[in-house]
Design a protein that fits this description.
Radius of gyration: 43 Å
CATH architecture of the largest domain: 2-Layer Sandwich
CATH superfamily of the largest domain: PAS domain
Largest sheet: 5 strands, antiparallel
Mean pLDDT: 84
Low-confidence stretches: none
CATH class of the largest domain: Alpha Beta
Number of helices: 16
Strand order of the largest sheet: 4-3-7-6-5
CATH topology of the largest domain: Beta-Lactamase
Length: 467
């Protein structure tokens, strides 16, 4: 039925497309409008006079062969145009058709025609190549049948049409090459590739998809995608999104890349990046999905995040993350109306250790210092290295009243540590404290500057004592 309500008669050809393993992956369908041809055949039956007019009107190459007389062969004007000849350039003999056939097609086509003439088949239909005047080969769809026989059944008249299908063949070849390229790319891709129909079922998956999720191709095809590879706790969310996609072709993942959790056949949950593209086929929305396993990427990100948070030498927090934690603690202290104590600490004589015992020894001192903090302070206390031999210590729910207790604990453990050192140096600290008070709040930088200044004042005193 056409758009304006007229009926057409169609010849329909189906061809199964297969991958390199011979498995069906799609269907190529070609519809040929034969309305005019049907009208022509009706006209032939009604009147020879009307036939002559109709033959010149159609766009198919029409031939009418009197089998009793090989020279009595009629070809329509379009037949000549199709092959590039003028009427007087083709000798009207029974050999004309055979001479123009491609050598690879000749035997099959002539056998089909002969079977039709002998009455073994009602009609003949074949696709073959014919040579044009320029010497090129043109693809033809030939159809014909015997329209007249004598009383003994001998064929008297053979009528048929030749249609130029070169363009269709080019499209089929382009489609075949495209399919081959896609299959080649798809099979070699490391990402999982899915075709998802309007019911959310998997209509195609590549090799990487089966390897990534642990299913065979048969186990994945015609299954609902999200029910197969998405953890059950997310099913309702995905089903809601796909209901919207069925109607509109839009959704939260269409045209974007989303990171979400997927699940393998063995139950292992892992992170993936999902990209979906909408494709409208037969007035229904379908989707192409590409899924990438980002487990290694996430592990690398976590490592980088940890490196950003942790000082690689000592294992305590880095300067940037330490300041971020201090900012959070100030907010928490302000909300809970609790005090917050911080200390700025410097290792006395650290340059002497580096210069006289080497930087490896200096690194060892830094590590020992952090281990001392960890073994002395509470679990909730925060230790971060500000750079070089400077450290920031944060004591939640502590005030300046606890400074003496903290100093004594650190000094006692430091004395034990120094007794274990076999080289000619001792580890010593200079410390300065400041307190965040909710009734007299100070900014982060101001708190650090106060502690830093008090630490330098103590360092001056320690240097005088040593001299």
């Amino acid at each position: 039925m056409t758009k304006d309500g007229h009926e057409l008669e169609i010849e329909w050809y189906d061809k199964t497309l297969k991958d390199e393993k011979g498995k069906p992956i799609g269907l190529l369908a070609v519809g040929l409008d034969i309305t005019k041809r049907k009208e022509l055949q009706k006209a032939l039956r009604e009147s020879e006079e009307r036939l002559s007019f109709a033959l010149q009107a159609v766009n198919d190459g029409v031939w009418d062969n009197d089998l009793e007389s090989p020279y009595n062969l009629y070809l329509s004007n379009h037949y000549y145009k199709m092959l590039g000849y003028a009427p007087n350039e083709i000798t009207i003999t029974g050999k004309i058709f055979k001479d123009l056939l491609h050598p690879e097609d000749k035997e099959v086509v002539l056998r089909k025609i002969q079977k039709c003439i002998e009455g073994k088949t009602k009609s003949y239909s074949a696709e073959f190549r014919m040579k044009t005047k320029s010497g090129k080969w043109k693809w033809i769809l030939g159809r014909g049948n015997v329209v007249s026989r004598d009383s003994s059944g001998k064929a008297l008249r053979f009528l048929g049409t030749h249609v130029d299908i070169s363009r269709r063949k080019e499209m089929e070849e382009a489609l075949r090459e495209s399919e081959e390229k896609f299959c080649s790319i798809s099979s070699s891709a490391h990402d999982a590739i899915f075709f998802i129909d309007n019911n959310d079922n998997i209509s195609y998956c590549n090799k990487a998809a089966t390897e990534m999720f642990g299913y065979s191709e048969e186990e994945m095809l015609n299954k609902v995608l999200h029910k197969l590879i998405v953890p059950a706790k997310y099913h309702d969310q995905h089903e809601k999104g796909f209901r919207t996609f069925r109607k509109t072709g839009k959704g939260p993942a269409i045209g974007e890349t989303l990171e979400l959790s997927a699940i393998r056949k063995n139950g292992e949950e892992f992170p993936v990046a999902l990209s979906l593209s909408a494709v409208k086929l037969k007035h229904k929305w379908n989707a192409i999905g590409i899924i990438r396993d980002i487990s290694q990427q996430k592990e690398a990100e976590e490592k980088l995040e940890k490196l950003a948070r942790v000082d690689s030498l000592t294992g305590c927090y880095s300067r940037g993350y330490g300041l971020e934690l201090l900012h959070r603690q100030i907010k928490l202290s302000h909300r809970s109306k609790s005090p917050l104590l911080l200390a700025f600490l410097d290792i006395d004589g650290f340059k002497f250790i580096n210069d006289n015992f080497g930087h490896d020894e200096g690194d060892q001192v830094l590590k020992q210092t952090v281990n001392l903090f960890k073994s002395t302070l509470r679990e909730i206390d925060i230790i971060c290295r500000m750079g070089g031999d400077e450290f920031l210590l944060i004591f939640p729910d502590n005030s300046l009243k606890e400074v003496s207790l903290i100093r004594n604990r650190l000094q006692n453990n430091l004395s034990k540590l120094n007794k274990s050192i076999k080289k000619n140096y001792q580890i010593k600290f200079s410390m300065g404290f400041s307190e965040y008070q909710t009734d007299k709040p100070k900014a982060l930088d101001e708190l650090i500057n106060i502690a830093d200044q008090r630490m330098y004042e103590e360092k001056k005193i320690n240097n005088k004592i040593q001299k």
